[in-house]
Amino acid sequence: MGSRARSGRGGAAALFVLRKSGLEVMVGIPNELLAIMASSMKAADKWVEKNVSNYLNKGCNVRYVAVGNEPFLSTYNGSFLLTTFPALKNIQSALVKAGLGNQIKVTVPQNADVYDTATGKPSDGDFRTDIHDRILEIVKFLSDTGGVFTVNIYPFISLYIDPNFPAEYAFFDGRSQPVVDGSATYTNMFDANHDTLIWALKKNGYGNLPIVIGEIGWPTDGDMNANAQLAQRFNQGFMTHIATGQGTPMRPGPIDAYLFSLIDEDDKSIQPGNFERHWGIYTYDGIPKYQLNFGVPNSQIKRASGVKYLDKKWCVLKPTVSLDDPKLPDTVSYACARADCTSLGYRTSCGMLDTRSNISYAYNSFYQKNDQDDVACGFSGYATTTGQDPSTGTCRFGIMIEVDSAYSWKPRRVRSNYLLVLLLALVHLCVSSS
Ligand SMILES: *[C@@H]1O[C@H](CO)[C@@H](O)[C@H](O)[C@H]1NC(C)=O
Ligand SMILES: *[C@@H]1O[C@H](CO)[C@@H](O)[C@H](O)[C@H]1NC(C)=O
Ligand SMILES: *[C@@H]1O[C@H](CO)[C@@H](O)[C@H](O)[C@H]1NC(C)=O
């Protein structure tokens, strides 16, 4: 559930910096373009020319084209059900025409909600009945053309939507009640979920189709189970697990995976939940939230250098304003709707603030998002700027970073996107070569 949809903006800049880096890149076609790719071979040709051939010629190591992003997610109500396969076929034809048929593989990243097991045992896995035939035509095509099945697996979201989900099962420490399935024993959800997919494929005659984990990760804020400790525990557990190279009970061997994500994205939709803007291993300004050992020497996660901040100024509630003022709630709603209040909920990083600081947090978020424009610290005269950092404990009152210095690090302009791709590629590289 809950697509970690990636914005297409910033993609060109991303590919530009990836030139000659040697990092492997997966470029993606947004769901909104599936209909046109499906109905027009010309559009598919043009897309490949502009977004693949063009960057290959500039030295970018494009390896995959992702056609859509979780197009069969159940919350999309089948909106992309009829266009995904025809789009996939047209893109594959376009790649062949461009002479890239052997070099670049196509795939359709799916959410793990496309398969299910009624009993909880992986061996009872199969594809969801409403999409069964549609997904099999894709699977057959991927199998025939040497493509891969890409799946995004999120134990965090299982824990988020199901209060009875056994928390330990989300992690890799073997502390949960095991699920026994024939001769296989599962102590973590990742392995069980992965093998549910293998069984679904096997049952339909495609048990050997290669699988790529397109996204996996853990957020650090916006929910009581989202914090740096748990994110580190999950991501490190996962890295260590796949570094052993032992794979899962149903598919021993190396696992190909992309960590989600490099950096927080403050413009992301929070429709799936308040955690959505907090998947980053880095904060919006390039500070690592925790360390990860990638199993390669000297692979420390370093702080981004050269980040330039705006002035040390914050926007806060004037001490003279009464909390009983009836107009106060509207100013907070205004700020929260346009900026970011996802760190103010129960047991989040700023969840312990008192009401005054809570309001200040909302005001400041809006002020920084508007590049410290004086007009953005008005709020009917209830707000004022201060040079004193209101940050306290785990709660950080941010300062926006400069646009020009931060070609790489300006989240508002969605520059973050290219670094995201960079880390994904980097992690992919480490994981694949280990
Ligand atoms: C290249 O990809 C972007 C993002 O998907 C898209 O907006 C653009 O239309 C594509 N270019 C062509 C020529 O199809
Ligand atoms: C899907 O259908 C449900 C129920 O009919 C509706 O509430 C929801 O808005 C629909 N979502 C989309 C993306 O069409
Ligand atoms: C803090 O702000 C959030 C978002 O506006 C709100 O949901 C929460 O109830 C507030 N908490 C306090 C203690 O004022």
From TrEMBL:
GO terms for molecular function: glucan endo-1,3-beta-D-glucosidase activity. GO terms for cellular component: plasma membrane; side of membrane. SUPFAM superfamilies: (Trans)glycosidases (SSF51445). It comes from the Eukaryota. It is a lipid-anchor; GPI-anchor. GO terms for biological process: carbohydrate metabolic process; defense response. Keywords: Cell membrane, Disulfide bond, Glycoprotein, Glycosidase, GPI-anchor, Hydrolase, Lipoprotein, Membrane, Plant defense, Signal. Residues 313-397 form the X8 domain. InterPro entries: GH (IPR017853), Glyco_hydro_17 (IPR000490), Glyco_hydro_17_plant (IPR044965), X8 (IPR012946). This is glucan endo-1,3-beta-D-glucosidase. It comes from Triticum turgidum subsp. durum (Durum wheat). The lineage of its organism: Eukaryota, Viridiplantae, Streptophyta, Embryophyta, Tracheophyta.
